[in-house]
Design goal:
166 residues, alpha+beta, 8-stranded antiparallel beta sheet, 1 helix
Amino acid sequence: MYCNECGKKINVGEKFCGKCGAMTKDTDVNINTTAKNPITRPDVNNILKKQSISFNIPQKKQLFLLIGGLLLALIIIIVAISSQGFSPVGRWECVDEDLEIEFYKDKTMYWRYESGSPNDVMWEKEKNNLIKITIEGYEVYADYDKKSKILTIRGDGPVYKMTRKK
C-alpha cells in the first residue's frame, strides 16, 4: 500500500505515513497493490520534482523582494539626505568685492571686509536654501542657488554674490 499524499510505501495496517504523517485510508482493508493505477516510483519522483520547482519559485520571489526592498531603502535614504538642503559651512568669497566670509558649524561666522571685521556675527538656517545672518544686531538674508552655486546676501545695503572658496 502507498500513501495517498506523498506516495511512500506503507505497510498494511499502519494508520499514519512514516514520511509525511498523513493518515492512511482503509487501514483494515487489504489493499491490492496490483490495481490499475498504483503509485510507482517514477510518479513519486515526479511529485518531488514538482514540489522542488514550486519551492524554488518563492525563493526567487523572496530574493527579488529583498533586493527590491534594499534598493527602495537606499533611494529613500538618498532622497532624505539630499532634501536636507544646503549647508553654508565653509569659506566663501565675493565675486566682485574684497569680501570673505566663513560659516562655522556652531552657527558663528567670520566676516572679513576691506574695512575690517565685525565682532558679533551669527547665522541660522531659515529654510532649505535660506540663511539668516545677524551682524551686530542687523539682519541680512543669504539665498543659495543650486544651479549657479552662488550664495546671494541681501539686506538694506549692497547685494553680495558669493562663491565657495577652494
